[in-house]
Amino acid sequence: MKFDTVIKNGVVVTATDTFPSDVGITDGKVAAFAVDLPLESAERVLDARGNYLFPGGIDVHTHLDMPFGGTTSADDFESGTIAAAFGGTTTLVDFAIQYKGQTLRTALDTWWGKAHGKAVIDYGFHCIITDLPDARLDEMKALVREGISSFKLFMAYPGVFMVEDALIFKAMLSAAQTGSLICMHAENGGAIDVIVQRALAEGKTAPKYHALTRPTTAEAEATGRAIALAEMAGAPVYIVHLSCSEALDRVREARDRGVAAYAETCPQYLFLSLDNFDVPGFEGAKYVFTPPLREKWHQEKLWNGLANDQLQVVSTDHCPFCYKEQKELGRDNFTKIPNGGPGIEHRLSLVFTGGVHGARFSVNRFVELVSTNPARLFGLYPRKGTIAVGSDADLVIFDPNQDQTISASTHHMRVDYSMFEGIKVKGVPRQVLSRGQLVVDQNKFVGRAGHGEFIKRQTYSQP
Ligand SMILES: [Zn+2]
């Protein structure tokens, strides 16, 4: 058997197994496992001694090159996917936005244009629906056939993205028919808007009021409502960026009853808290994203949720805006601060540090949370999300004991600050392969813009 690449001496880790093995790669796919694969015919040999070999990370929540709040997120599909690869992520699912009056297809065409020729790793799209008259319902089905097997709806941002319950319910009925998955931004946007207007009238304009005007109850209420609508529609539902204990309770209660409710959280909710707003001047704007940071005690609840399968995925909600000139748009009014933070690069290291080194869950559960579950829920499995004969050779050679201090001075995201500045992680990707090609090699980018391909996703399967 002839291999393009053999990875020697690694410890292969999947969601279920951990075993020492060489891995042979042919034509971009995993072709063989054995303790001593013959090396004579291999064109390239990588030595993974002392390292884990993970399936590439899958980040199902990113916003590259996205217009928002009068500006555009700072990473495009080239810089964003490079940063992702440095962090061990080899597939993204980003969001194509349908604006009011547009066809869903227009959204997809626009985002294909943004990604094509730029991405260095593979990608898919969810479609954000903001407008769904009955005549447009068939477009959802057409999109599923094109490999867009998930849709996102907002219960927040009135006048921009927010949609009413009837629309959500209709979309869920359609999803139930096609096997697609509805992703929900669950916050009660109407109530939040009233609280926000009252705060502004009282002269509360500093960044921290973004967080203080979005109570956990608003997230919990919308989470419960989204799950109830899905239950009535007979559809699965996926709650994005769950941030607090109260919302987690709703997901857990539903899952205990056997409802197909799933949720992700993000590293910012696991590592940061309201305390991060204790910084001078306007710097709190660096932590303005939605849902907002919560009191510190929520962090342990979320870790516990990840360990006990109340939460199934860690994604990033990467939506970077520079502090200078972008975040500064809201200097006098927190509602004008573009919402979002940069996180695409550090997801694996942060979750590995807090989860595996923190003794909260196993290395297999780690792989499940950052790769296998997202692959299953979003129709990428088993092509991606595992290491098996025939699966894409999207692989991460990961040193579990290497230390790194996160800093804007060394990261690869095109943004002038880090949310995680100064945080020490243990566990860093050393080499990253996308379909058998090295993308990152010992701290150097060796990939190519345009290598990343659009992945036509299958429909949802239960994790
Ligand atoms: Zn988002």
Based on the model shown, name its key terms:
nine-stranded mixed beta sheet; alpha/beta; eight-stranded parallel beta sheet; single chain; 19 strands; 23% strand; binds zinc ion; 463 residues; 12 helices
Describe the protein's architecture and organization.
It is a single chain. By secondary structure, the protein is of the alpha/beta class. It is 29% helix and 23% strand. It has twelve helices and 19 strands. The strands form three sheets. Strands 1, 2, 3, 4, 5, 16, 17, 18 and 19 form a nine-stranded mixed β-sheet that branches. It has an eight-stranded parallel β-sheet with strand order 6-9-10-11-12-13-14-15. Strand 7 (67-68) and strand 8 (71-72) form a beta hairpin. Helix 4 (165-178) packs across helix 7 (216-233) and helix 7 (216-233) runs parallel beside helix 8. The longest helix has 18 residues, at 216-233. The radius of gyration is 21 Å and the shape is globular. The mean pLDDT is 97. The structure holds zinc ion (ZN). Zinc ion is lined by residues 61, 63, 317, 319.
